[in-house]
Amino acid sequence: KNQVEQSPQSLIILEGKNCTLQCNYTVSPFSNLRWYKQDTGRGPVSLTIMTFSENTKSNGRYTATLDADTKQSSLHITASQLSDSASYICVVSAGERFGAGTRLTVKP
Amino acid sequence: DTAVSQTPKYLVTQMGNDKSIKCEQNLGHDTMYWYKQDSKKFLKIMFSYNNKELIINETVPNRFSPKSPDKAHLNLHINSLELGDSAVYFCASSQQASAFTDTQYFGPGTRLTVL
Questions:
Q1: Residue scoring higher pLDDT (A36 or B96)
Q2: How confident is the model at residue A7 (pLDDT cuts 50, 70, 90)?
Q3: Cβ of residue A31 closer than 8 Å to a chain B Cβ
Q4: Which of A78, A87, A74, A99 is nearest to A19 (CA)?
Q5: Chain B: residue nearest A52 by CA?
Q6: DSSP assignment of A68-98, as one string?
């Protein structure tokens, strides 16, 4: 079983709506947890980096949270735009454990 | 003025051949990486170099040999290509090397297809 599990696998929302993506991990200890956005056919782009002692980190309309006790992280996207359509990947840095990603589609 | 560039973008080759993928970054970063993304979209780190020195070498077959002529370049040479090597290979760079604490910048990827 992968040590970093993301849910849902895919998500479709309407433009302007908010959404939350989940990342549960079993890796411990770790130095940081990162969220990436990957457009189809492109390399990943870093959204947030949180150390294990941080609870939240924002980057524009993206807000990541981390609960080290429950080993859960979430990425909240506010006021979604069509350009948010991409895969969102959670990475736990303890030997670089990648989640499989959540495929988000934003429809007009 | 691409920050991290890779060549070629697509590579189609026969089993058993030897091929190279090149990566260059113009960000002045000290650390470069190679990742492999398989058909299930999982990314896995393969290698990491800091100032031309190897600092991470995951369990990668020794058919894969990274070479860093200078800290702006990290090339990946693959010998005796196998069907299972088919994947997208991403190069990345970051300023710092310690525990991936710094923002990584990824290249556009090289899609390798082994026939």
A1: A36
A2: very high
A3: yes
A4: A78
A5: B101
A6: TTTTEEEEEE-S--GGG-EEEEEEETTTTEE
